[in-house]
């Protein structure tokens, strides 16, 4: 099981720790470093900055939001950074949810997310393979554009720049069983959310994964003496995502928590958060749930829990690790 460093997205501003942490992860032998985006910092610019300050570690997006860019634009970002970094890019994509897609990007959330994802990946792969001009006549993506307001002058084009790697890995963030099943068919890897080594069935059937397919869940990792205190950042994250990252009637994160055996608790967290009682929402997150999707506690406890992560289909553990000591301990335990 390889290790990756997950840095997430910026809060109020850039973190001065991100580049030093990425450099330390590279020194310790971590395989990859990952950035993210929501409705603030973008996913590619910080990764490019990290690329300029490292030499070996692979560079992943977890995730680049599909609504933020047309698929050809995303492919342009990926192939450009892949050249500049010497072939280190892992392109992770995700749909996000209606709240962000329609509220932030000002675009309709697709009526058929599976179809929209499939078409998006198709366009990206066509750009990267550069075998012919990009041509798609899809429900959500059309190249050339043929909508009712088209001029009719659009021309199918092939990238001027030759991609460094036509097989640049494409991973998908997927939560629902149907989305996960499609991911296993059309992508090179999967970025699970809230992975529990004890509940893989929550995502659907994960048998017969093809050789080389990446399963790369993200988990908060924290070496500390007090487990309850160490779980608080995990619970804070869960309270925000389950309570606030989605509408009361449509929240994919809350739905996933429900499928993992915490249906009643997920709805209570939602209700408290939407009522403005955010501290109560965080405290309502069960310690047991926060614990099973993270690696928190003394070194010996993390070592024991790490064994269950190695036994399943996980190929890459993407650690949300807050400090260099935690990175070092995790690297030592994973040897």
How is this structure best described in words?
With 335 residues, the protein is of the alpha/beta class. It has two domains: 2-221 and 298-333, TIM Barrel, CATH 3.20.20.30; 225-296. The protein is 43% helix and 14% strand. It is built from twelve helices and 13 strands. Strands 1, 2, 3, 4, 5, 8, 9, 10, 11, 12 and 13 form an eleven-stranded parallel beta sheet that branches. Strands 6-7 form a two-stranded antiparallel ribbon. Helix 1 links the parallel strand 1 (2-8) and strand 2. The protein is globular and about 65 Å long. The mean pLDDT is 95. Keywords: Monooxygenase, Oxidoreductase. It comes from Streptomyces lincolnensis. One of its GO terms (molecular function) is monooxygenase activity.
Task: From the structure above, extract its key features.
2 domains; 335 residues; eleven-stranded parallel β-sheet; globular; alpha/beta; 12 helices; TIM Barrel; 13 strands
């Amino acid at each position: 099981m390889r290790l990756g460093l997950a840095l997430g997205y910026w809060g109020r501003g850039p973190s001065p720790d991100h580049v030093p942490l990425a450099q330390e992860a590279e020194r310790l032998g971590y395989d990859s470093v990952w950035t993210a985006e929501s409705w603030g910092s973008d996913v590619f610019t910080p990764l490019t900055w990290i690329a300029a300050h490292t030499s070996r570690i692979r560079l992943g997006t977890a995730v680049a939001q599909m609504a933020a860019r047309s698929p050809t634009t995303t492919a342009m970002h990926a192939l450009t950074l892949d050249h500049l970094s010497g072939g280190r890019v892992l392109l992770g994509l995700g749909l996000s949810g209606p709240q962000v897609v329609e509220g932030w990007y000002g675009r309709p959330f697709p009526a058929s997310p599976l179809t929209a994802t499939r078409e998006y990946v198709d366009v990206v792969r066509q750009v990267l393979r550069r075998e012919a001009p990009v041509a798609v006549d899809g429900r959500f993506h059309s190249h050339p554009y043929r909508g009712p307001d088209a001029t009719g002058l659009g021309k199918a084009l092939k990238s001027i720049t030759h991609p460094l790697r036509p097989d640049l890995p494409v991973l998908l963030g997927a939560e629902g069983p149907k989305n996960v099943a499609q991911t296993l068919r059309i992508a090179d890897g999967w970025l699970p959310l809230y992975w529990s080594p004890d509940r893989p069935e929550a995502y659907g059937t994960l048998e017969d994964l093809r050789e080389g397919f990446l399963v790369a869940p993200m988990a908060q990792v924290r070496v500390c003496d007090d487990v309850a205190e160490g779980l608080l950042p995990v619970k804070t994250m869960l309270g925000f995502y389950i309570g606030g990252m989605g509408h009361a009637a449509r929240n994919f994160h809350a739905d996933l928590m429900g499928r993992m055996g915490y249906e009643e608790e997920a709805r209570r967290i939602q209700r408290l958060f939407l009522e403005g009682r955010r501290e109560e929402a965080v405290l309502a997150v069960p310690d047991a749930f926060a614990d099973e999707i993270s690696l928190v506690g003394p070194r010996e406890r993390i070592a024991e829990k790490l064994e269950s992560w190695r036994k399943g289909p996980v190929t890459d553990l993407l650690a949300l690790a807050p400090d260099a000591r935690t990175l070092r301990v995790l690297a030592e335990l994973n040897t």
